[in-house]
Structures are given as C-alpha cells and as structure tokens.
Design goal:
With 208 residues, this protein is α+β, with helices and mostly antiparallel strands. Helix content is 28%, strand content 24%. The chain folds into two domains: 89 residues, Homing endonucleases (Endonuclease I-creI), CATH 3.10.28.10; 100 residues, Endonuclease I-creI (Roll), CATH 3.10.28.10. Strands 1, 2, 3, 4 and 5 form a five-stranded antiparallel sheet that branches. Strands 8-9-11-10 form a four-stranded antiparallel sheet. A two-stranded antiparallel ribbon has the order 6-7. A hairpin with a 2-residue loop joins strand 6 and strand 7. Helix 1 packs across helix 4. It is globular and about 50 Å long. The mean pLDDT is 90.
Length: 208
C-alpha cells in the first residue's frame, strides 16, 4: 500500500505535528514497513474523523476511543514507503534537509491544525508547538518558513515554571513563533484549508 498524492502532501505537515510512524522490519518483504498512527483528544474528534476520511483507503478499522478518552486510528502496513523512512532514524523523528521541497500551503495548514495556537486574544501572532525537536531543527524550520513562504518567524524559548525571573530559568524547548506582521500572508496560505472545528486556532483580524 502506498500514499497517494494528496495523502503525501498532507503527510509532510502532519509529521511535523502529532502524526507518529511505527517502524518495524518484515522478513516477508525483506525490508522495512510502516504504520501511520493518528491520535487526537476528545475535543478534536471532528478533526480526527476528517483525517480518517483522507486516509481511509489505507485503513481497515474506523476510529476508536482509548482509555484516556482520545480518539485514534492507524493505517495498514505501508511497505518500503520512502516518505516514512526519510523522517525517522530508528525510532527518533528527524527533519529531512529536503523538507521544504515538498511542504506546501496545504501541508502547512495541517501542521497548523495539529500544533498551531494563537499567542493571545490581543495578538495576530501564532505559535507552532515544536517541543519534540532540537533547537537546531527548530531554527532550520524557521529559516525554511521564512525563505519559502515569506513569513516573519523565529524560535521562541519556553522556560521552566518558577518564581525566578525568566532569564534565570531553564529553557525547556523552543516553539516557532510566526509574527502578527505575517498575518495576511499566513491567512492567504492556510485559512481556506482549515476545517470549521479548527478555525478557532487562527487569530481574528484586529481593527488596529
């Protein structure tokens, strides 16, 4: 089984977010096989079912709810799928150097639906949650978003909680921050692809 063109295009965004790939070796085909694992919280059930419809040709059973209350489904075995191999080294997710040759506005929209959030109700800026990546990987992603999509973007540190001044607290990870100065560009790129139940993640246009 293989991903079709649309599934691949969306994959490039989802893999930067919540999508996980289970990798294992099969003696039957003398190679590596993969399964895609999709999971969302109960409040994003509609989004999970939306993803299920997109990938249904690769899935045998409909979404189910686990003991945590989350909804999930997984694909059937994808044998020797290069797109999966390039994002994993062993069981560790990595960022391939050719990512931005394939990441499109459609993929960016699904990355945003997976891991995007508004900075605040008063801001037009947004975050992409990237705590599973190293600082160098986040920096690479920022540079790619800037050069390909002309977004004003930079790594934003997330500090450990505490009463100390933030300069004295440990940086736990970095998020990607897309400046409100890029609001119109980002909206033109992705808003038409956001499903209704996920549009709350995108900031409303400010009057000033």
């Amino acid at each position: 089984m293989k991903l079709n063109k649309k599934q691949k295009e969306i994959f490039y965004g989802l893999i930067l977010g919540d999508l996980h790939v289970t990798q294992y070796c099969r003696k039957l085909d003398n190679g590596t096989s993969y399964r895609l694992y999709f999971e969302q919280g109960n409040n994003h059930k509609n989004y999970l079912y939306h993803l299920y419809k997109i990938y249904q040709s690769l899935v045998k059973t409909s979404p189910k709810q686990n003991k945590k209350g989350n909804w999930y489904f997984h694909s059937l075995t994808l044998r020797d799928e290069p797109i999966c191999a390039k994002f994993y080294k062993g069981n560790i997710k990595r960022i391939p150097l050719d990512l931005f040759d394939y990441l499109t506005p459609l993929g960016l929209a699904y990355w945003f639906m997976d891991d995007g959030s508004i900075k605040s109700k008063e801001s037009k800026g947004v975050y992409l949650n990237t705590q599973s990546f190293t600082y160098d990987e986040v920096l690479f992603l920022c540079k790619g978003l800037e050069s390909k999509f002309f977004l004003k973007v930079w790594p934003s540190p997330c500090y450990e909680k505490g009463k100390k001044h933030y300069t004295e607290r440990k940086i736990l990870y970095h998020q990607i921050y897309i400046s409100g100065h890029s609001y119109e560009i980002l909206k033109d790129l992705i808003y038409k692809y956001l499903i209704p139940s996920m549009q709350y993640k995108f900031p409303k246009k400010r009057k000033i």
